[in-house]
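User: New here, any thoughts?
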Amino acid sequence: MLYDWIKAGHIVSLIAWMAGMLYLPRLFVYHASLPPGAQAQSATFKVMERRLLKAIMNPALIATWAFGLTLAWMSGLYATHWLQAKFALVLAMSGIHGWLARMVKDFAADRNTRGHKFYRVLNEVPTLLLIVIVILVTVKPDF
């Protein structure tokens, strides 16, 4: 019964984390598209980006890892290849999270040097990783 509650916590925290991972780059697209001198709109985006990162994404990342590692330990599946591949992809997703956090700081300090097209492409990376992760968890390929 405890395992099911931990799994539910893992899924809920994953959904929150991925919502942020998909929305933050979209905010960057809009922020990077602002015309020069749009200080009021830029200030609004800075607040939105910071709050999304600090209040939703960071706690959800921590909870996802905590619940996920607990599940791997409780189930003994940590030795399976599909879970090891998932682990590597979640590490990559966490690295992207860190990179996005750095971009929040760059936007906050008005140091962004990238255009909206860059962020449109970046917005697809977490989606692709998520698709592969879900396939690994659902299919559990034996490789």
Summary: Residues 2-139 form one domain. The mean pLDDT is 97.
